[in-house]
Write a structure and sequence with these properties.
- By secondary structure, the chain is mainly beta.
- The chain contains two helices and 20 strands.
- 3% of the residues lie in helices and 37% in strands.
- The strands form four sheets. Strands 1, 2, 3, 4, 5, 6, 7, 8, 9, 10 and 11 form an eleven-stranded antiparallel beta sheet that branches. A three-stranded antiparallel beta sheet has the order 12-20-15, with no helix packed on it.
- The longest helix is centred in the last third of the chain and has 9 residues, at 308-316.
Length: 428
């Protein structure tokens, strides 16, 4: 039997048909480079699984092809956390304050304030007790030092942070596209049970609350709480306090007698903290929090750790301390007149632009003295902010009194000590 040898010359044109090619017989080695064009691709056949990671580059996206609909809810990766100082790392006012039983104030860690009324007595401090392996160095601790097991109807103890309206515009509150938000944080307490978190729209008197549970005593737990977007009432686009994020720790019947407002509604005290445990019922009670993040979306991302200098800059928009070395000298007249209540001017540079024109707060030692050791009856009075703007040299005044023994002599007025001597406060 003779063997017939076939070559390309032996095959008539069109002799090799699809039917003559075995399944899977054409491999990538048999396909010439650059021969498969767009006409060979079936419409809709290239899906996400066929695209290599990072394959779609900027150059492959047509101009104006990415629309607003495709970026809804997307913010810059940096500053996705609406909260400031959520890792509790900065405490310009000091690391601890004790015997707190009433009033509203910023006490220790920056940007977090409290309000207490008939809700026990507390020590509030910056703590080094933190969840293991999460990157946090500090937490905020609430320690009950005088218990209140029988709450008054108006008893309350809340921790909160206020947010400027102009920093909330991308939430699109008051529109049909209002964004959902998620609040996440690490929390620890010896007292298990139900706790309440609340958002308050200060511009439109609206609120929404959600509960969370501390399940295990003395154990750090991460909580994630999602709040629906509010289609009613826009936030003011200004530097005022539009939103308050609140953690309830103590709530009397004025705040727990209704039905918890888990959807946005007009503010009503009775619906704000229904189910809240009484953290003030024992002097053994402690409550810690750190890693606070508030962001767009229905799920929590990893905590956003900012560089230390950026975190400091953001905090100083609301409060900053200035180390001040000041010396003033005035020569007293020799006639029979006393220097009393004279207003004198000083200046201090604001390190970072502030939210608004600040109030001026003294700390440290402010000293008045005569020109000689025997003439030391100069008494510094109160400081008063007299303007200069929120981002420039800030001017302030003080008063001082000198007795008649200083007649014809000089008077000194100066700062003393190495602690910060002047603070500027523009808190919400």
């Amino acid at each position: 039997m003779s063997i017939i040898t076939l070559n390309t010359r032996s095959l008539p044109d069109s002799a090799v048909t699809t039917a003559k090619i075995a399944a899977d017989a054409v491999t990538d080695a048999k396909i010439a480079d650059d021969v498969i064009g767009t006409e060979h691709l079936t419409a809709g056949e290239v899906d996400a699984t066929a695209l290599a990671t990072n394959a779609v580059t900027t150059a492959k996206i047509a101009d104006s092809a990415v629309t607003a609909a495709k970026t809804s809810g997307v913010t810059s990766d940096m500053f996705r956390n609406i909260m400031i100082n959520g890792d509790m790392s900065l405490a310009q006012r000091g690391t601890s304050v004790s015997s707190i039983s009433s009033g509203t104030a910023y006490d220790t860690v920056d940007r977090f304030s409290r309000n207490i009324g008939s809700g026990g007595t507390w020590t509030i401090s910056q703590s080094t007790d933190v969840p293991t392996g999460q990157g946090f160095a500090k937490s905020l601790k609430m320690d009950c030092t005088t218990a209140n097991g029988s709450l008054s109807s108006n008893s309350e103890f809340v921790l909160r942070q206020n947010v400027e309206g102009q920093n909330l515009q991308y939430l699109k509150k008051g529109t049909s596209s209002a964004e959902s938000t998620t609040l996440s944080f690490w929390v620890k307490s010896n007292k298990t049970g139900t706790y309440i978190c609340e958002l308050v729209d200060n511009d439109n008197s609206r609120q929404i609350s959600q509960s969370y549970t501390i399940s295990s005593a003395d154990t750090w737990e991460k909580k994630e709480i999602t709040f629906a977007g509010d289609t009613t009432g826009a936030f003011g686009n200004d530097n005022g306090s539009s939103l308050t994020v609140t953690w309830w720790l103590v709530a009397g019947s004025d705040f727990t007698s209704g039905t918890l407002s888990t959807t946005w509604t007009s503010s009503t005290n009775a619906n704000r903290a229904v189910g809240q445990v009484n953290l003030a019922d024992s002097t053994s009670n402690e409550w810690y929090i750190t890693g606070v993040q508030f962001e767009v979306g229905t799920s929590a991302s990893d905590f956003e750790f900012l560089p230390v200098d950026i975190n400091g800059f953001r905090c100083c928009r609301y409060y900053q301390q200035v180390g001040l070395d000041m010396y003033q000298y005035r020569y007293m007249p020799s006639t029979a007149q006393n220097w009393s209540g004279g207003a004198h001017l000083g200046t201090a540079a604001i390190n970072f632009p502030m939210r608004a024109n600040p109030t001026t707060i003294t700390s440290g030692s402010w000293t008045g003295a005569g020109h000689s050791a025997t003439d030391n009856n100069c008494t510094p009075g109160s400081l008063t902010s007299i303007g200069g703007g929120f981002n420039t040299i800030h001017r302030f005044s003080w008063t001082a009194n000198q007795n008649s023994s200083a007649l014809g002599k000089g008077v000194q007025f100066y700062t003393n000590g190495d602690t910060p001597d002047l603070a500027f406060d523009a808190e919400l």
